[in-house]
Design goal:
mainly alpha, 80% helix, globular
Length: 344
Amino acid sequence: MSAIRFDSTRQYYATSSLVIGYALCSSLLAVINKFAITKFNYPGLLTALQYLTSALGVWVLGKFGFLHHDPFTLDIAKKFLPAAIVFYLAIFTNTNLLRHANVDTFIVFRSLTPLLVAIADTTFRRQPCPSKLTFMSLLIILGGAVGYVATDSNFTLTAYTWALAYLVTITTEMVYIKHMVMNLGLNTWGFVLYNNLLSLMMAPIFWVLTGEYREVFAALGANAGNWFEPVAFTAVSLSCLFGLLISFFGFAARRAISATAFTVTGVVNKFLTVVINVLIWDKHATPFGLVCLLFTLAGGVLYQQSVTGPPRESTTPKQTNDENENDDAEENQGKSVLGKHASI
């Protein structure tokens, strides 16, 4: 009896640790990425270092048996390449958005994605029109976003151009991955490996197209003999580390708790991001802008409730229901970890 009680207590603390770890990584990641791009103003190189850390981390952990990922093959890589291109563009536009705007602006535009995904699903994938409650929640999200943009004192054409580009690419990624990538049969860590490794291979192309390589070489020449800057190194290291950690904690937390609990945790994380951003520096919205931002997040909560069906009655044992729910969560996780740097 005591052994059973000890095992349940240990499982409780293990699950709590995973949820807390995911909450910290998710809520801090956007702020850390903003800090990193502020101190290391090379978005292409920064994202390449993040891809390298994540791909190398998955490969090393796989070698030591801490996780299992699908082997990298050229045939699957060719099929995965279009999705990896969309993923790269989503992360690239996300980093440039954080470069030119504050974290609050990023969260507002990230919260707009359900609206565009609903439109895309209805228009291109012939899905049913949203219910009245879903439609109302989408209008609340849109109203909060419009109010935020209208009162944004830091509005610049460059920042909002990147914001719109990010919104289009992240929406395309969500719809495209739902439509095509899930059919490849990769497990979660396989998605992470293919996404980051293929994105790393594409990085030099964007360095040349954007001309960033000239800025990097110019900075190296100007700082000859003094290339190491402790603050920038710390910021980049944290950004890379948290990008890998959110994949681990996100995957592990989804397996440990129900899909509903994981979704609630994600919503709370956004509120934590807003609070942390307000407390640590002055790079945030006006008070009215923050109200609009919270309005948008509230619309997101209502949207999640509207698309989550009522619990189904069943005479099967609870263990079976939990296993089915976790299977669904694991399937959905494939979409989550693909956008881990933006988790957003």
